[in-house]
User: Fold this.
Amino acid sequence: MKITDKKAKKRESIIQTALQLFSANGFHKTTIPDIAKKMHMSVGNIYNYFSSKDILAGEIIKYTSNVLGGEIRKVNMLDISSKAKIKKIVEVYFGMAQERPEMIEYFLRVYLSHREVFKNECEEMVCVSGFITEIMIFFNDGVESGEFRNQDFFSAFGLFLGYLGGMVFLKGEGILPKEINEYIDDISFNIYHALKV
Assistant:
C-alpha cells in the first residue's frame, strides 16, 4: 500500500471516528484529545491531518453529504418515474438513519444546530453540495418529465427535507410508535402529492 493510500485511509478513519463522537456526545463536548484517544493516536498526529476541530467538522459534513449524494445519484440514474424515485430516496434516507445513524444525526444535530462552526469552512451550502446537487437534479428531472410543478427549488427542498429530517428526528427522540420503515409509503405519498402537477 502506498503512503498516500495509507494516509487517505487514516484520514477517513479519523473522519469516521469524529463523526461518531460528535453525533453521540455533541460537537462542543467532543475534543481533539477525545478523538485521538479513541483512535489510539497522539493529539499531534491528528493535527497532522486536520489543523483544527472546525476544519475537521467541515470535512465531516462534506463526507456525509457526498455519501448521501452518491446514494441519491444511484436513484437519479434509474429509468423510473419521479414518483418511484421519491420512494427510493425516502428508503435511502431512512435506511441511512438506521444503518449509519451518526451520519444523519451529524447533519441534523451538529451541522444545522451549530452553523457558526461552519461559517469559515462551509460558506453558503458548499459543504452539502454533494447532497443538494443530486436533490436538485431529481427535482429538475421531475419538472422536465411533467410530473412535478415548476417551483422555487428551496421551497421544494424544504418540504422534502422537512419530511425526511422530521421523521428521523422523531425516531431519534423515541417518539415514533412504529419502526421508521413502516412510514415509507405514507411519507412518499405525501411528498409526491405536495410536488406533483
The two ends are 53 Å apart (CA to CA).
